[in-house]
Amino acid sequence: MATLPLPISHTPYDGSSKPFNIGVRPLDLKDWIEVDANLPSYLNEKARHYRDDRDQVIVSEETSVEAQSEVLDLLSEHMCVRYPDIYRKMENSIDILNGQFHAELNDETLPPLATAAKLVQEDLVLMSASPQGWRLVAASLCFPSAWNLLEKFGHPLHHVHAPVPGFGTGTRNASVIDRMFDNLRPEQPVMRWNWSLHEDGQLHHPTSHSGTESRFGNGDIGGHVFLRVERQTLRKLPKSGDIVFTVRIYLDPLEVLETIQDGHKLAAAIDEQLSVFSVEQESYKGLVGERKRLSERLKKITASYEN
Amino acid sequence: MLKDSSPSLAALRNKIDALDEALVGLIVQRFSIVDQVIEIKRSTNVPASIPERIEQVVQNAIEKSKASGVPEVTIERMWRLLIAETIAYEEHKLASK
Questions:
Q1: ipTM above 0.90, yes or no
Q2: Low-confidence residues of chain B, pLDDT below 70?
Q3: Which residue, of A93, A220, A287, B32, is most buried by count of CB atoms within 10 Å of its CB?
Q4: Which runs of E-coded beta strand occur in A116-205?
Q5: Which of chain B's residues have a Cβ under 8 Å away from the Cβ of A183?
Q6: What residues in B contact A172, CB-CB < 8 Å?
Q7: CB nearest A180 (choices: B47, B49, B55)
Q8: Does any CB of chain B come closer than 8 Å to the CB of residue A184?
Q9: What confidence tier does A102 reach under pLDDT thresholds 50, 70, 90?
Q10: Number of structural domains in chain B
């Protein structure tokens, strides 16, 4: 997929968003969704997944359709008001970028949440309260970061988070997240950051890396490592009480740190955070056997600023 | 005749009154720390209500009261009231300067 190399817009790996922390903070509703010059490439990539592997990227429980429609209504309204130069409301559809893209709001071939996801660069996940906890009842997930949608569909949060060290069933983090979902208010959306290191600039990553294979190629690690940032938001829906979870992916080659202001500080911050990972955390992030080479590369970037 | 060794209602009430006095003192202390938090939040533009912090505080109270016999839901309701009042106090102070 061809995306434009844009200036880095978010750097949660600067130490402000520690891995394996909940790190949820209040979000101004006007900043719910972000749009940049890569909108066409993201939407084209989504269209390709909808066409080629729809069953892998779209899931929907029939009972969630009304809440999905609520998301579609909120999102289409939000985008047209927030980005009027890009989104235009037609009678039963939304025009994007002067008709370059078009979404029928009453498209009966798609669940409403999948139609909503055609408007934006974000993936969308719908969570609904149940006696088992908050369950994943619908999603359009084209750009997963090492997780498989079909394995999580229909399951409660603690199951979804089970592979994450410190977030499984019965942990304090699981209790805090459940309570946070219960008490989230429609007028107060929240957001959090997640970040990881991947071996390519692909958006679609449905599998995790748990082996010890050389993930970042042999020899020089340069050119094989990408910073993958997830901007996640949670918003409780005022009518249904369900929660829509959005995930936006930002990708940058590690080498970009050599070219930006304070890149050396960012490299040092990443190195420091990786150095305190437990064995389980290192495995979850797919860095087993690669941390030493990564550390050497990050130190080289830091040193390049000192010379 | 057996001598009744259980404390009288009046004595128990005296104990509750003493605990309440201590509780009020602790709440006053808590709010004096909140005053310092407000100044930091003001200078760093952090809002009064932070959902994750709320749930961490509630979780702390529930964990500390486990096995005490006091119902979890009672502790949760009391702490949510304390937190709601604290947030209202913070919001008022943040808006007033």
A1: no
A2: 1-4, 97
A3: A287
A4: 123-128, 135-140, 190-198
A5: 51, 54-55
A6: 59, 63
A7: B55
A8: yes
A9: very high
A10: 1
For chain A, which residues make up each domain, given as ranges? 12-306
pLDDT digits (tens, 9 = 90+) for A145-160: 989 999 999 999 999 9
Backbone angles phi, psi at A222, to 5 degrees: -55, 135
- The torsion angles phi and psi of A176, rounded to 5 degrees, stand at -65, -40
In a domain, B2, yes or no: no
The CATH number of the domain holding residue B56 is 1.20.59.10
Helix spans in chain A (H): 39-52, 54-57, 65-82, 112-117, 149-152, 157-160, 172-183, 263-275, 279-284, 291-306
3-state SS class at A235: strand
Q: Is residue B51 part of a domain?
A: yes
A215-250 tens-digit pLDDT: 787 777 777 899 999 999 999 999 999 999 999 999
**How buried is residue B49: exposed, middle or buried, by Cβ count under 10 Å (0-12/13-18/19+)?**
middle
CA distances B10 to B3, B6, B16, B18, Å, are 18, 12, 10, 12
Is B1 among the domain residues? no
pLDDT of residue A69 exceeding 70 = yes
Q: Which residues pair with A165 in a beta bridge?
A: none
Torsion of CA A233, A237, A243, A248, to 10 degrees: -30
Residue tagged 């209500």 (tokens): B49
CA distances A306 to A108, A138, A258, A265, A299, Å, are 59, 50, 12, 11, 11
Residues from chain B that touch A179, judged by Cβ atoms under 8 A, are 55, 58-59
Look up residue A99 and give its two tokens. 């008709």
pTM of the model: 0.91
| pLDDT for residue A175 | 94
Q: Cα separation of B97 and B90, whole Å?
A: 11
